[in-house]
Design goal:
Low-confidence stretches: none
Mean pLDDT: 92
Largest sheet: none
Number of strands: 0
Distance between the termini: 28 Å
Shape: globular
Helix content: 55-70%
Radius of gyration: 11 Å
Length: 81
């Protein structure tokens, strides 16, 4: 739950793999999505390709965290920020 304190490609890729493996829906996927969103907010960037894959519980969690911490990172419907 505190993986946001360890940003880096290894942690991000592990979080992304877990979210995908959990089909974006489990509590584990939700916790991983929250950590990933916190990393993105802290680094002021998102992984646009993976953001497009997000759905269900994981997407809701990412939007919740980014909405609170870095709403400017949430892509608009036209693909921009």
């Amino acid at each position: 739950m505190y993986l946001e304190d360890f940003p880096g490609l290894l942690v991000e890729s592990g979080l992304i793999r877990t979210i995908r493996a959990e089909d974006f829906t489990s509590v584990l996927a939700q916790l991983c999505a929250a950590s990933l969103a916190c990393i993105w907010a802290r680094q002021d960037r998102i992984d646009r390709d993976f953001f497009q894959e997000l759905h269900r519980t994981a997407l809701d969690e990412v939007l919740r965290v980014l909405g609170a911490r870095a709403p400017h990172l949430i892509p608009t419907m036209d693909g921009g920020n």
